[in-house]
Structure formats: C-alpha cells, structure tokens
Write a structure and sequence with these properties.
single chain
Amino acid sequence: MAGATPAGEAWAACGRFTIADCAAAPALFYGDWVHPMAERFPVLAAYRQRLLTRPSVARVVDEARPYRRFFPLGAPDRD
C-alpha cells in the first residue's frame, strides 16, 4: 500500500487510528522539525503527514501555534 507505515498499514496498529498513533504524533511532529525525515524516511514522513491531516491531531497543532516560540530549537515556518 502506497503511503503506509512500515508494517503496511495506514495507521500504527490494528489497521485503524488508535492510541499508538496518538503517542507517535508528537514525537514525529517535533522530530521532523529537528531532523527533517522526508528524504531519508519517506514512509515515515508520509505517516507523519497522515497524522497531521487527522482532525484531532490538526486541532492540537492549531491550538498550540501560539506556543511555538517556546520550542527550544526554533520552530520552522511550516506545519
């Protein structure tokens, strides 16, 4: 399946969005800011992008925008 996780699924476990995806979202979100993953890890980058399109994840990202200035390494102008 194109754009799947390394296990071949759209989500991390059970073939559906679960707490495993909720746990992965912050690490992938901020991790990509520090070490962009698209070129080296395209499957992981695609999974990150799917997470960001999930309404619950997108809401958290939007509501946290005012606090990006506190990210110690500086927040990129994306996401």
